[in-house]
């Protein structure tokens, strides 16, 4: 009892630190800068207020929930800076709750509360998570829903093994939250099918299919609200979100900006008129262009996709939020052209060096220790397979679509959950070695 009480107190401290760090960073940002033209945040803010006030000039090209979230604050608060403060405050809270979900999932996956505390602490002080909570972008809300849905599924729906007492309510709520995640970003549209396979493995075909239906039907009902809206309001059929075709085409080529993409598309589909090429509703054009790009050089396509995915994994998300030259370029230049103490001093004292270094350390620790943790916890597949499945699903989606560090970042909490299990196991192994060494020394004495 005392141990559990101590764990709860440590967890509360971790969550308090997480919230304070996010508030301190978010409140000190320029709340007007996000409205500058040419950035994704400005696009979300403009379309958000249009959606809330029903002034959209055309069918939305993205999932709606984040637009509604920020648009509601824009509509309620004026001037605009007040809305940005409210958005950042809400996202700080959502990001802190995500730390709690990581605690629960790591505890369940490893059967060790220490791993839960370590996972929560890593997300609490991780620079990328702190910085992301202040961005007017979809990641914080999306990660909150995904992690919340995984927690509901793993802790309440997947673990009970008795088919005569199926967790119908937990499955339905998890399905709803997965639906909300899909209405934030359409990427997890097919992920519940993977959870259906997991339930069949757990419960067998008969009970597994019934429980999968309890998850997927609420999920489908939530996602269908967006489909119905688009059919009624715009006479357009959309499931989850638009843009898959364009991301597939960009993945088949290279992303060099919108103008370069339009020019490349005109070369790939020369039979179309300029009006057809610039039509906002041009999914068929993107699919045709992607098909031709892949068929003309399939080996090159596979090579480009693997290279881009590997590059997106090796580059931590968040380095662009800090001013200064690329840390990777600076280190490479020092190793190849300098290698002097003065050059090293300049490197370490360069603008943005320490926060970028922290991003690299946290990211690579998550990847390396996370891979080890996935292997260590493989026998607990009943609770770990959904987590591994989400990381793998995110990876495979962006193997075919455009892969950027930002798009892979939502899987980072899962890597940290597995990393926590590995790091706790490493600590226990080192402690046992130290104990054995002391015992041997005592016997020798």
Q: Secondary structure elements and their pairing?
A:
Elements: H1 2-27, H2 40-52, H3 65-76, H4 80-110, H5 113-125, H6 127-132, H7 139-158, H8 168-184, H9 191-234, H10 244-252, H11 258-268, H12 274-278, H13 283-296, H14 298-314, H15 327-338, H16 341-348, H17 353-376, H18 381-400, H19 405-408, H20 412-444
Features of the shown structure:
20 helices, 445 residues, mainly alpha, globular, single chain
Main β-sheet: number of strands, strand sense, barrel status?
A: none
Helix content: over 70%
Based on CA atoms alone, the radius of gyration comes out at 24 Å
Order of helices and strands: HHHHHHHHHHHHHHHHHHHH
What integer is the average pLDDT?
Answer: 87
| Tertiary shape | globular
Structural class estimated from helices and strands: mainly alpha
Question: Could you tell me how far the N terminus lies from the C terminus, measured between alpha carbons in angstroms?
Answer: 39 Å
Q: What number of domains?
A: 2
Instruction: Extract low-pLDDT stretches.
Output: none
Number of strands: 0
Provide a count of the helices: 20
Provide a descriptive summary of the structure in words.
With about 450 residues, this protein is mainly α. The chain folds into two domains: about 1-235 and about 345-445, no CATH class; about 240-315, no CATH class. Helix content is about 75%, strand content about 0%. It contains 20 helices and no strands. The protein has helices at about 1-25, 40-50, 65-75, 80-110, 115-125, 125-130, 140-160, 170-185, 190-235, 245-250, 260-270, 275-280, 285-295, 300-315, 325-340, 340-350, 355-375, 380-400, 405-410, 410-445. The longest helix has about 45 residues, at about 190-235. It is globular and about 85 Å long. The model has no long low-confidence stretch (mean pLDDT about 85).
């Amino acid at each position: 009892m005392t141990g559990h009480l101590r764990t709860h107190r440590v967890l509360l401290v971790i969550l308090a630190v997480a919230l304070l760090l996010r508030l301190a960073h978010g409140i000190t940002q320029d709340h007007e800068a996000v409205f500058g033209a040419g950035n994704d945040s400005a696009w979300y803010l403009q379309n958000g207020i249009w959606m809330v006030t029903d002034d959209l000039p055309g069918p939305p090209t993205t999932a709606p929930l984040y637009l509604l979230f920020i648009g509601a604050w824009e509509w309620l608060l004026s001037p605009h800076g007040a809305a940005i403060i409210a958005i950042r405050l809400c996202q700080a809270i959502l990001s802190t709750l995500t730390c709690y979900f990581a605690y629960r999932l790591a505890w369940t996956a490893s059967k060790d509360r220490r791993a839960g505390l370590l996972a929560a602490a890593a997300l609490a002080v991780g620079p990328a998570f702190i910085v992301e909570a202040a961005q007017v972008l979809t990641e914080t809300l999306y990660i909150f829903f995904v992690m919340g849905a995984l927690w509901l599924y793993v802790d309440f729906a997947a673990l009970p093994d008795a088919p005569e007492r199926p967790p119908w309510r937990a499955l339905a709520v998890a399905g709803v939250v997965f639906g909300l995640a899909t209405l934030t970003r359409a990427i997890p549209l097919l992920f519940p099918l993977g959870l259906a396979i997991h339930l069949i493995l757990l419960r067998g075909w008969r009970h597994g299919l019934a429980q999968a239906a309890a998850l997927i039907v609420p999920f489908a009902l939530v996602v269908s609200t967006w489909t119905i809206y688009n059919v009624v309001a715009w006479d357009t059929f959309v499931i989850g979100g638009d843009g898959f075709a364009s991301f597939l085409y960009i993945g088949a080529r290279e992303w060099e900006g919108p103008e370069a993409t339009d020019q490349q598309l005109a070369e790939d589909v020369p039979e179309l008129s300029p009006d057809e090429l610039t039509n906002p509703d041009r999914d068929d054009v993107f699919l045709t262009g992607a098909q031709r790009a892949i068929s003309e050089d399939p080996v090159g396509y596979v090579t480009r996709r693997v290279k881009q995915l590997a590059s997106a994994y090796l580059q931590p998300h968040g380095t662009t939020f800090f001013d200064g030259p690329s840390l990777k370029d600076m280190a490479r230049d020092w190793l190849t052209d300098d290698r002097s103490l003065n050059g090293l001093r300049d490197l370490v004292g360069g603008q943005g060096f320490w926060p970028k270094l922290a991003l690299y350390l946290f990211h690579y620790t998550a990847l390396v220790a996370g891979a080890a943790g996935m292997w260590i916890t493989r026998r607990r597949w009943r609770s770990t397979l959904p987590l591994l499945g989400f990381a793998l699903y995110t990876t495979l989606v962006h193997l075919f679509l455009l892969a950027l560090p930002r798009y892979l970042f939502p899987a980072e909490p899962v890597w940290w959950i597995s990393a926590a299990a590995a790091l706790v196991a490493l600590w226990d192994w080192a402690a046992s070695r130290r104990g054995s060494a002391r015992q041997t020394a005592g016997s020798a004495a």
